Amino acid sequence: MSSILQAIDYAIRQIDSCLPAFIEKFPFSHSEGNFYEASENVEWTTGFWTGELWLAYEHTHASKYKDAALRQVASFKERILNRIDVDHHDMGFLYSPSCVAAYKLTGSEEGKKAALLAADNLVSRFQLKGQFIQAWGELGSEGNYRLIIDCLLNLPLLFWATEESGDDTYRDIALKHIDTAMRVIIRDDASTYHTYYFDTETGEPSKGVTRQGYRDGSAWSRGQAWGIYGSALAYRHTKNPKYFDLFERMTKFFLDHLPADRVPYWDFDFTDGSDEPKDSSASAIAICGMHEMAKFLDEDKATFYRSEAEKLLHVLIDTCAAVDPKVSNGLLLHGTYARKSPYNPCNNRGVDECNTWGDYFYLEALMRFAKDWDSYW
Ligand code: GLY
Hints:
two-stranded antiparallel sheet; 377 residues; mainly alpha; 9 strands; 3-stranded antiparallel β-sheet
């Protein structure tokens, strides 16, 4: 079993192998044949690479990571100022690991300004009827009148924005969205819907529908993981015990439904014996969530979640980590971005590949076990 520190060294070597290609440009959301192509600063995924650079900087103190990350902070500021691909809710995914991290680690005023503008953009998507932040599409349109479980990771940006600006609006909207999301998105057995629609006239919740899971009633494994980390972050920022209960139940569902090799299939409808692909990124996200929640628990529970998280992390290190720059320029193999099913609108995309969020959360998870890491979220 490789040690955590050795795994971090491998990950940083992987980052070094592609750093020159990804300073002005970013890795695309997912790899092809386990290699990332370069992309402009678009999609919901570019902040993760900048976040990896900040983690590498924290671990090594080498200025090459800081210098590259700060150049990317300038790109994120241009992106929000010029409204390039920002008509959606993924402001936290983009701006927390890049610009909030820059501000926390270096005092970057440019990072602070960009992240506050991103927070403004996020609150502009709040819908009074239904009390939620609309994920995608034209604001108020019937076909897009829904929240998605992933948004829980966008909300720490709003708590941060209130702390930095003194304006309670950001926090109030985060609290309202969390309350709505937690009410509608978790089923009785603690599996989760991916997205939930609301009536545009009355604001009443209407139906749970999947976008990236296998079917409406299944548990998309990455969605379940967003629920785990999202409820831990909701607890961190609110200390509301309701979110601890939901965290415990969603985590139990996740752990109870893992296959024998402890790497989830892309949807929990699939288990041992299936030919369907895995999604290692779901595991990386859930590990971070369990580790985060453990900070707030009594010793017995904290030990339980830390130990479950550490076991899953060692599985990732031993079976999914990319350790050879000739095989991949990513960190975590065997992720799945989107998988076609008869019941979802997806085409296959990034199936059994690296993806930037899998890489980021894997490195965040390693850092969490290596030091007393101060969260970017
Ligand atoms: N947040 C989008 C995804 O997890 O694919």
